[in-house]
Amino acid sequence: MSAPNRDMSFAAVTARKNEIMKASLGIDFMDFIQSPIAFDYERMMRETGYSLEDIARIQAETKVGNTPLFELKNLTEAVRSFAGPGKGATILVKDEAANASGSFKARRASISVYEARRKNYQGVAAATSGNYGAAVASQAAMRGLKCIILQEVFDSRGICQPEIVEKSRACEAYGAEVQRLSVGPELFYQLLMTLETTGFFNASLYTPFGIKGVETLGVEVAEQVRQRFGKDPDAVVITHAGGGNLTGTARGLLAAGCDQTRIVACSVDLGGLHMAADTDFNRKSFTTGHTGFGVPFATWPDRVDVPRNAARSLRYMDEYQLVTQGEVFYVTELLSKREGLERGPAGNISLTAAVTLARQMDRDQIVVVQETEYTGAGKHQNRQLSFARENGIEVRVGDPRENVPGKTIVIPERLEQVRGRVQDMDKLRRSYLKNAVKAYPLDQWNEGDYRFLAADLKQDVAWVQQAVSTIEMN
Amino acid sequence: MTKIAKGTWVEIERVLLKPEERAPNLPEDTRKCPYVLRISGFLQADAEIGADVTIRSLIGHEHTGLLRVVNPSYGHSFGATVPELLTIGLGDKS
Ligand SMILES: Cc1ncc(COP(=O)(O)O)c(C=O)c1O
User: Quick check: helix, strand or coil at residue A453?
Assistant: First the structure.
């Protein structure tokens, strides 16, 4: 596709960001923005014009939603065998792999693609190296729209991360054009160019359409647990990368009235690896659900491809667990061998955290793992571990505490050794506030900014005032 | 060199940004490399490997670049067996 005589340099295209976004989304974010920090989040979510009932109906048209909730009896028993007296909550899992395209991301794609169709766009485009690409491509196939997916696939040696090759395959299988790119944040630049030259709809992961699409997942969890157990789930554990999975699920749980349910985020710890570094690219055995996305997105959501991010996880999060790559691979094997379910990597991150939570929680309590994803060639733990070995990573059995991201993957010997580590929530919140000060000098903040930040951090205004005063001092 | 026939499914490669044109603030190792696109489609005219060509993607969009691979396929697999995984979860059966 050729562009009419426009400056296509990195700086020029990036400078046209706002105008490209407006044309490709039909949302004018200026309507909601109140300051460089604050915006009317709830009004933005409301004014997308889709109610939860609309969304459930639209999703049912394209093979999304109403996925089964399974009790993992053998895994629960295994945890009870070493949990203390009276401990060992029941572990449930929502089999989101049953959605068209094999993950919860179908919920996220469904409303964007519906909206694109309704507004007569010729096609949809998204920059994503994960399940979301397959989800958009699959939804677009059903709605008769063209689809372009941009992915970060290979390093400067030309070596592709196997899980992302599987994503390229899936997208092309659904009839999409796949642009495979080398390592770098310029994926966003290429997305802007693509949106500008094609006039396609921006099926961003972070619009209100995307996040509202996930709310049905939270509602279904609430309804299914109530129906089977006559009570609300005590904890729901949610794999966290960009934070949309957590935000949408938590909003759905709240909409269904589960206001006492503990919302637990979980990521694989990849501390020390640089996400934009060519040489670190193929030293990771997870392509999502890791701290390389989880921490920066939680602590500054507005770093994305839309002016304001609808995924704001600290608004809803009560706790943030970390697990190691080896622990997730171990639990993934257990899910196959003890529960008869072969499922993919990212979904099993929260399953791994659920083992730790169930062990700490009472026997009559319920912890819900709110998703699974499909698995297969490239995604499978055997491929990720053999790939790690090919890239010079040590893989061995032992104590998972000896895990070093990018250097050593330690597969636990026993389930008892699977132990989540919690992140310090206040540290995350303070880190968010530091980013807010960088975005907008503190002396300019007004009452509205403080109120917005308090809501965004699930704290009160006094907490924010106290926290910023200490940030200023160091 | 053999000609690849018009209509063949191929992969092309194009440099989108030279190292000096890339985003600011990149890590050292990434900054040294060009930013590269690879994409598959149907070849629009007979050509040899390495030639500058036009392809038509699965959605009918045209892209240009250097002809890199004929009939590209996905090389991913389940990988060499990792024996450490085999015995996990066997319990009394092992
Ligand atoms: C299967 C699966 N689970 C969880 C996540 C994390 O979701 P989010 O990026 O919204 O935090 C992703 C995507 O990155 C995913 O594909």
Answer: helix
Which residue segment(s) compose the domain that A375 sits in?
62-101+209-422
Q: Are A370 and A91 in contact (CB under 8 A)?
A: no
Q: What range does the domain containing B64 cover?
A: 9-74
Domain boundary among A155, A190, A206: A206
Between helix A52-61 and helix A208-229 the angle, nearest 10°, is: 90
Q: A2: pLDDT confidence band, cut at 50, 70 and 90?
A: very low
Ligand 1 atom closest to the Cα of residue A373 is 1
Structure tokens at A457: 């951090």
Give percent above pLDDT 70 in chain A: 99
Pairwise CB contact (< 8 Å): A330 & B29: no
Q: Looking at CA atoms only, how far is residue A354 from chain B in angstroms?
A: 17
Residue B1 belongs to some domain of the structure: no
> Residues A337, A364: one domain?
yes
Of A186, A381, A396, nearest to B22 by CB-CB distance is A186
Nearest CA in chain B to A178: B39
Q: Name which of A272, A285, A292, A277 is nearest A393 in CA terms.
A: A285
Q: Is A134 among the domain residues? A: yes
Angle A76-A77-A80 (CA atoms, 0-180°, nearest 5)?
Answer: 90
Residues A357 and A230 in one domain: yes
* d(CA A300, nearest CA chain B) in Å: 18
CATH code for the domain in which residue A123 is found? 3.40.50.1100
Using the structure block, give the residue that is written with the tokens 């998204």. A126
Q: Is the pTM of this model over 0.95?
A: yes
Interface predicted TM-score (ipTM) of this complex, two decimals: 0.96
- Say if residues B73 and B58 touch (Cβ distance below 8 Å): no
Examine residue A5 and state whether it is found in any structural domain, yes or no.
no
Tell me the β-bridge partners of A245. Answer: none
Q: What is the pLDDT of residues A159-204, one digit of tens each?
A: 999 999 999 999 999 999 999 999 999 999 999 999 999 999 999 9
**Within a 10 A sphere around the Cβ of A302, how many other Cβ atoms?**
17
